[in-house]
Each structure stands twice: as structure tokens, then as C-alpha cells.
Amino acid sequence: MKNYILCVFVCLYLASCKEKKVIQGFDSLAWKTSKMGCEGNRLAKVNLILTNKKEWLGIDDDEIVELLGRPERSYYYERNVRAFGYYLTSGKQCDSTQIGFGNRLIVEFNATGYSKRIFLERD
Given this structure, which CATH class describes domain 24-121? Predict the structure, then answer.
């Protein structure tokens, strides 16, 4: 009986482990170090994301946070749909004397927490 319980726990543990998502050519560390898009480094990297959208769709929210870091803005919609926002360019979020906020990359998730849409939002 003890062996059976141990086997079940081992199987559950192995099933819960998943591989880290790697997007070829995307420098996750460089993206994360450009806080709030104030350095302007993210604008060049967003083209890689948009041209390889299919690789980014269907990823769960934890993997997105692993790749892009914590979101700088969060949006909550009805029916448990939400989105993460990441600034691409400097704006009011970097310097309060600027007129508008910087452009953003929006990653929208379905109710089960998987990315369903990626797009740019301009202020």
C-alpha cells in the first residue's frame, strides 16, 4: 500500500513539472531589465514577438511572466478574461512631464489563463 501511495505522489510530481518555454531569438533578460520601457530597448524586441505570434499564443500566464517579467499594467475584463501590459517606449510612466504614456504590448488571456491575443496599444 505504501508503495502504491509513493508511486502516485511521484507520478503527480512528474506530471506537474513542465519545461520552460523558450522562444528562439528572444532575449528575456534584456526585456526584463528595461523597466517600464524607459530605456527604449523593448521596441526592437517587440517585432520578434509580433512576427512569431503563433509561438506566443497558448502560453499560460506564468510562462508569460517568466519570459517578460511581471506586467507593468493589468487589465481585468468580464468573464475572467484579463490582460498584461508591458510598456515599449518611454512616456508619462517614466517622466511625469511627458504628455502621454508609452506604447504598450498587450497579452490577453482567456478564462483558463492561456494567451489568446497579442497586440500593440498606442496612447
Answer: alpha beta
CB 106 within 8 A of CB 83: yes
CB neighbour burial string for 104-120, b if at least 16 within 10 angstroms, e if fewer? bbbbbbeeeeebeebee
Cell digits of residue 73: 499594467
> Left (φ > 0), alpha (ψ -120 to 50) or beta: where does 74 sit?
beta
* pLDDT for 12 beyond 50: no
Provide the Cα torsion 19, 13, 113, 34; round to 10°: -50
Domain ranges in the chain? Answer: 24-121
Question: Predicted confidence band at 21 (pLDDT cuts at 50, 70, 90)?
Answer: low
Best CA proximity match to 60, nearest among 21, 115, 108: 115
Only one residue has cell 504628455, namely 99
